[in-house]
């Protein structure tokens, strides 16, 4: 009788143990699936958490021109992954209390192996670049240079050359008319030594001295406040509908400006009256070009930029030196170019 009771007791313990093990397994599977679900809905690549890299670079940008920077970032990842390098993208989108200097501090404190930063002429950024380099972290500037800093290389375009490219495109737009032309160049950079102002100066110089446009073309710079919500929208609307003469051509230096300008033309029924020279190629910009509502848009070679940025840091880390400047190709995309791509 005692033996039977012991057998029943042992069987009950076995059953409870077996059921407990099954519950533990099911709970573990559920936790794994839930974790993957959270990563998926947050847009995080699980490989970043399951792969160990030997080197860590950071790309720091100001959050504008999102389409452009996402393309550059993808090219950096493609170039870096075979080299056992993880590239982390940090921007100011949705972080109004942060600055690029704050992101530099985070990277310096985290002892990343290299930093790629867009110089937006933020106060103190040169000092942060110098601090990083002094701490043994090489810094590469991209798109906008910081020549007064200790950065090891610059990836982008000479602003004078870019200004000349814009001038040639504007000449193509106005060569078939003898009328007076007003051109407004939208600037977000308040620094007179910054890239945008240098591009504007070159455009103005070229058009003032060219025989086709001298005396009948006026080029003006319009400054758009940085960090203010809807600043691009309001500034463009003021240009088109409130202050002074309506421009014949708007030159934009960001996708945000370009889309704001295009939307304003639609809102005020001015499509066709004002020509837009856009910046890069969001879905909205490309559709407007296909429809003939944006004259052209400037496109930088993002593959070249991403590849050269990674190469510059790798060269410096491995050899202690690198090229001080890596040029980037650009093209101006028109409606006929898109039609050729689609055929």
In short:
Helix content is 49%, strand content 17%.
Description:
- With 343 residues, this protein is an alpha/beta fold.
- The chain folds into 3 domains: 1-51; 54-157 and 302-328, Response regulator (Rossmann fold), CATH 3.40.50.2300; 159-300 and 334-342, 3-Layer(aba) Sandwich (Rossmann fold).
- The protein is built from 12 helices and 12 strands.
- Helix 3 links the parallel strand 1 and strand 2 (85-91).
- Helix 6 packs across helix 7.
- It is globular, with a radius of gyration of 27 Å.
Question: Count of helical segments?
Answer: 12
The CATH architecture designation of the largest domain is 3-Layer(aba) Sandwich
CATH structural fold name of the largest domain? Rossmann fold
Radius of gyration: 27 Å
3D shape: globular
Uncertain residue ranges:
41-49
Determine the mean pLDDT: 84
> How helix-rich are the residues, as a percent range?
40-55%
Total number of domains? 3
Output the strand order for the largest sheet: 2-1-3-4-5-11
Order of helices and strands: HHEHEHEHEEHEHEHEHEHEHEEH
Q: DSSP strand (E) fraction?
A: 15-25%
Largest sheet: 6 strands, parallel
């Amino acid at each position: 009788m005692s033996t039977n009771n012991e057998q029943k007791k042992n069987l009950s313990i076995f059953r409870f143990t077996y059921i407990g093990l099954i519950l533990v397994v099911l709970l573990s599977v559920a936790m794994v699936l839930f974790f993957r679900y959270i990563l998926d809905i947050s847009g995080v690549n699980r490989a970043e958490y399951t792969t160990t890299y030997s080197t860590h670079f950071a790309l720091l940008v100001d959050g504008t021109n999102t389409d452009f920077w996402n393309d550059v970032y993808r090219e950096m990842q493609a170039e870096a992954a075979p080299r056992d390098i993880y590239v982390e993208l940090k921007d100011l989108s949705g972080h109004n209390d942060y600055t690029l200097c704050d992101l530099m501090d985070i990277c310096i404190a985290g002892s990343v192996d290299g930093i790629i930063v867009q110089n937006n002429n933020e106060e103190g950024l040169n000092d942060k670049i110098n601090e990083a380099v002094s701490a043994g972290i090489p810094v590469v500037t991209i798109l906008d240079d910081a020549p007064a800093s200790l950065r090891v290389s610059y990836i982008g375009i000479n602003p004078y050359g870019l200004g000349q490219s814009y001038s040639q495109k504007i000449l193509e737009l106005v060569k078939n008319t003898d009328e007076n032309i007003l051109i407004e160049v939208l600037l977000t950079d308040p620094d007179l030594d910054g890239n945008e102002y240098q591009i504007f100066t070159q455009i103005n110089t070229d058009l003032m001295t060219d025989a086709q446009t001298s005396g009948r073309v006026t080029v003006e710079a319009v400054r758009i406040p940085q960090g203010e919500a809807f600043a691009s929208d309001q500034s463009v609307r003021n240009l088109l509908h409130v202050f002074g003469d309506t421009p014949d051509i708007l030159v934009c230096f960001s996708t945000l400006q370009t889309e704001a300008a295009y939307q304003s033309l639609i809102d005020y029924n001015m499509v066709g009256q004002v020509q837009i020279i856009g910046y890069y190629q969001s879905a909205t910009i490309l559709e407007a070009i296909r429809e003939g509502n944006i004259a052209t848009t400037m496109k930088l070679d993002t593959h070249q930029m991403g590849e050269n940025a990674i190469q510059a840091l790798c060269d410096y880390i491995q050899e202690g030196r690198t090229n001080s400047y890596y040029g980037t190709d650009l093209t101006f995309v028109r409606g006929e170019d898109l039609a050729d791509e689609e055929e």
